[in-house]
Amino acid sequence: MNKTIFILLDACQYEAGTRNLAFLEHLVDYGKGAKYKVKGEIPSQSRPIYATLLTGLPVCEHGIIHNEIRKTLDIPNLFSLCKENGGVTAAAAYSWVSELFNQSPFQYERDYIQLNTGKQIDHGIFYWEDMYPDSHVIANGEFLLRSYDPDFLMVHTMFIDYIGHIFGGESKEYENSVALAGNVLAAPLTRWLEAGYNVVITADHGMNRMGMHGGTDEIQRDAPLYIFSEQVQNGRFEEDYISQLNIAPLLCRLLGVAVPETMKQQLEIAFRQQG
Predict the structure, then answer these.
(1) Which of these CATH numbers, 3.40.390.10, 3.40.720.10, 3.40.50.300, 3.40.50.720, describes 4-255?
(2) Tens of pLDDT along 163-176?
(3) Rounded to whole angstroms, what are the CA distances from 147 to 115, 117, 123, 124?
(4) pTM higher than 0.90 for the full model?
């Protein structure tokens, strides 16, 4: 199995990411990564799209139709598939990820730190305050990586979303929060790539100028996708949109696990020729 890290920058809109994730853009410019433009699924709400990103299913099929649906999914997903193939899973993420894949409802006194769970996510540190700093989330991910050596690690930040809801998606505060996330990621990303990890970075949805998302227009749906892997052709592939349903089968392929029949999206990612 090929060790893979999945970074989810909650509410990082495509254009804002392009303007402000400067180190990621630098790596793509110098042929060290690939970038795509993703058309997000709708409704562009967080919990439904978390489920979509990790199962490869549209909302109408996985059943998490809005943010208030609190249940644990028992359908094939990146965590379950990794474990079925003998891998170890981990997540430093918002509490809703724990509810979707380990147990629901989230109880912070029980679920904040979960280690050796035997559930879909073996090891997890789950925060529940939206203003939880990105630097802390990344540190939690680094701790899990060094302590438990997972084959699949999810790191999910929420601060961009928090700032966007307060100040709006066209504010200087929102732009700065995206830039801050990029700065915090730069050093650990460099270490991960040097160590040979596959790294995939994307967002669940965007944010409009009124501080809202959930709707159907581009600013609420469009997300960047950065891929750093020896398996993928480097360069910019942003002329056309690709479906958000690509993310789950992409992660399967990078990990080296078979893509289940439930993930029906034909991959639109350019892979390198093998051999």
Answers:
(1) 3.40.720.10
(2) 999 999 999 999 99
(3) 11, 15, 10, 12
(4) yes
